[in-house]
Amino acid sequence: MFDGEVVAASSADVRPADLGQSLSGLFRVAERAAVATGATPAMQIVVDTVDGAVAAVRQDGHAVVAVLRPHPPRVGLLLYELRRALYDSTMDDE
Questions:
Q1: Which of 27, 39, 69, 85 would be 43's cystine partner, CB 3.0–4.6 Å?
Q2: What are the φ/ψ torsions at residue 7 (nearest 5 degrees)?
Q3: Which pTM was predicted?
């Protein structure tokens, strides 16, 4: 499973308008992960707007796999890293 490390870093050149797309993509991936693991999407993603954008995708409500603060990374990079982390976690279970 995830060990709580941050798998995506922020990028200062991303426009704030990209935040919605990033969070939307995060939630779609989190929903798929929730279905695959038997968890609920609410256990998979936490969003906060205090002091910039913060998004945390969690496995079983504990391990953070992505954090965005205060600017989101490029959505493609973030989703690639998240998919890789989810894939790695399923390989660890086998």
A1: 39
A2: -105, 0
A3: 0.34
If phi > 0 it is left, if psi is from -120 to 50 it is alpha, else beta; for residue 86 that is: alpha
Q: Which residues make Cβ contacts (< 8 Å) with residue 63, sequence separation at least 6? A: 1, 2, 3, 4
Q: What is the number of other CB atoms lying within 10 angstroms of the CB of residue 19?
A: 19
Distance CA 4, CA 51 (A): 22
* pLDDT tens, residue by residue, 66-86: 555 555 555 556 666 666 766
Q: How far apart are CA 41 and CA 65, in angstroms?
A: 14
CA dihedral 3, 86, 30, 21 (to 10 degrees): 100
